[in-house]
Amino acid sequence: MIETQEKRREIRAPLTMITLPFVATREADHQPFEYVLQDLSPSGARFAIPNWAANRDRLKVDDMVRLHLPLHSDRVFSGAGKVVRVYWDDPLFAQICAVSLLRKDPMEAPVSISTASAEIIYDHDLVKSLPSLISRTVMDCIFLKKGVAIYLKHLIPYFSRIGGYNHQEYSKLKAAVLEDMRRQALEENERLTGIHERISRLCARTEDIPRQLNLEELRSLIESGINPDIFEAAFESELVAPYVSAIKELEKKLYTNFNMVVIYYLLSL
Fold first, then answer.
1. Same domain for 121 and 189
2. What is the 3-state secondary structure (H, E, C) of 71-83?
3. Could you tell me if 199 and 165 lie in one domain?
4. Which domain holds residue 13?
5. Distance CA 31, CA 50 (A)
6. In CATH, what number is assigned to the domain containing residue 37?
7. Residue from 4, 7, 24, 5 nearest 259 by CA
8. Within this chain, do residues 172 and 233 fall inside the same structural domain, yes or no?
9. Cα dihedral 57→60→65→68 (10° resolution)
10. Which of 31, 84, 190, 214 is the most buried (most CB within 10 A)?
């Protein structure tokens, strides 16, 4: 049930309506994983990692994670914290994780999730603008993914100087690792452009969104195709780490954008 707050022009939707997975990242290795938010409090969150994701993305106590959500308490902050409890839930067939929220990062968003009431909070008029909000968010994803491809383009000649490989060795490595990653990023950028064009053309009304937007397709395009372990194995120089970290920061913005699209999608139903 959705309650209308007439004086504040706010609508509050219960957390129980969030049934679709978001994307989070594990801080240690920047790796993304899918999760379903279950519960919130001003100091913590509880989420489930479904079995299809838990098989490869199991968390452990003391892992640092970032939820990439506009969580709101006394001010808006994106949920980052430390895992304090993990257990397996047989009925849900999922790993359950409880995290203590630690980091407060100011974040502007037209929608927020209250950690006090566990509700989605948004302006009454926002639903009318969901198609344009999704369109702008996907466009931002296009720019971010293009940024990843540009980083990789500049890294190809840079790594040739610092890698310590001879010409023949580097040519093989460049083709197998760097150029393949860049080609994948460019292909994902092209497909994101196609999604944006489809949304802009066919989503004139809020009710059009569920018919035209495939969240699984979008998630597959924003997720990283860059494995830091491959970089560390191929390029032993410590100079590589800052460049990989810069790419990962762009990707984290992609995950935040995807999570916002999930919220918009849910509000369109």
1. no
2. EECCCEEEEEEEE
3. yes
4. 3-125
5. 16
6. 2.40.10
7. 24
8. yes
9. 50
10. 31
Q: What is the pTM of this model?
A: 0.87
Residue that is last in its domain, among 66, 100, 125: 125
Looking at 125, 147, 171, which one is the last position of a domain?
125
* Number of domains into which the chain is organized: 2
Q: Token match 């203590």: residue?
A: 100
Residues 109 and 70 sit within 8 Å (Cβ to Cβ): yes
Q: Are residues 44 and 31 in the same domain?
A: yes
Does residue 80 sit in the same domain as residue 34? Answer: yes
- 111, 264 in Cβ contact below 8 A? yes
* 49 neighbors 89 (Cβ within 8 angstroms): no
Please list the pLDDT of the chain residue by residue as tens digits (269 residues): 333 344 445 677 778 888 899 999 998 888 889 999 998 888 889 999 988 765 566 799 999 999 999 887 765 566 788 999 999 998 888 899 999 987 666 667 788 888 888 888 888 788 889 999 999 999 999 999 999 998 888 777 766 665 555 556 656 665 567 788 888 999 999 999 999 999 999 998 999 999 999 999 999 999 887 766 666 666 656 666 777 788 889 999 999 999 999 999 999 98
